[in-house]
Amino acid sequence: METALTDEFALPGMPAIALSKLLEIAKQAGAAILKIYAEGAGEVIIKSDNSPLTAADQASNELIVKGLKELTPAIPVISEEEKDTPYEIRKGYKYYWCVDPLDGTKKYIKRNGEFTVNIALICKNKPVFGIIYVPVTGALFYGGKDTGSWKVDADGQKNQLKIDNKADNWTVVGSRSHAADEETAVLKKYPVGQMVSVGSSLKFCLIAEGLAQIYYRHGPTMEWDTASGQADRATRFIRSTYSETCLWVAICFSRNPKKSSKRSCA
């Protein structure tokens, strides 16, 4: 077990951010989700993009946005549930928070536990720090260039995440709700041994722990779904030569810096 060297991190032109306070925001959001989860999903609203919205999404979003604005008032917040900032404005942001207050709402409604809280810090359109919190298990994953990649268990045990760089017999992790036939052709190019389906950004968590080596996704996705996982230095994001296909491969950024992604695939 290892411990982080500092409770703060900063980027050029940005005040230092207290890491413990930032992680606490994610935990508080997770607690709010679980409180509503224990009472049942409740009313489900279908948004204009045909995706579901629950009281848990809204409660988590309110806590995260409020917490981030208090902690870092100079950094804008873009959330899945607050998408009203025009692109012409936000494209000029040097830094901003990219938030999915409840990733895996469909899984939340199905009550299978496969949902997460995602918070990422974006610098010049690149994710540089990310948090993934798993409310049901209490596991918290976070990582960035200056912090390293870590998993904190519900009991507080903290372990640094390192990639095993497995050469063959890869475990591929995909989504339960987004599998596509086109992905089969892509995966034939890689040494795949088995495939596992899991919802939300839990896919990134499996890769970060070395329990899976690649995440495939054929088709478009949103930045708040992927940014927190991309920022974790324990995973590498690459865009396939296949149109609109994204792959996340378990190879450290530091070993292949020229191949790391510059943006999320949104």
Structure report:
The protein is of the alpha+beta class. It has two domains: 8-160, 2-Layer Sandwich (Fructose-1,6-Bisphosphatase, Chain A, domain 1), CATH 3.30.540.10; 170-259, D-Maltodextrin-Binding Protein, domain 2, CATH 3.40.190.80. It is built from seven helices and 16 strands. A seven-stranded mixed β-sheet has the order 5-6-7-8-9-10-11, sandwiched between helices. The protein has a five-stranded mixed β-sheet with strand order 13-12-14-16-15. A hairpin with a 3-residue loop joins strand 9 and strand 10 (148-152). Helix 1 runs antiparallel to helix 2. The termini are far apart. The model is unreliable at 1-5 and 233-266 (pLDDT under 50). It is a peripheral membrane protein. GO terms for molecular function: 3'(2'),5'-bisphosphate nucleotidase activity; magnesium ion binding. Its cofactor is Mg(2+).
Outline of this structure?
By secondary structure, this protein is α+β, with helices and mostly antiparallel strands. The chain is built from 7 helices and 16 strands. The protein has 2 domains: 8-160, Fructose-1,6-Bisphosphatase, subunit A, domain 1 (Fructose-1,6-Bisphosphatase, Chain A, domain 1); 170-259, D-Maltodextrin-Binding Protein, domain 2 (3-Layer(aba) Sandwich).
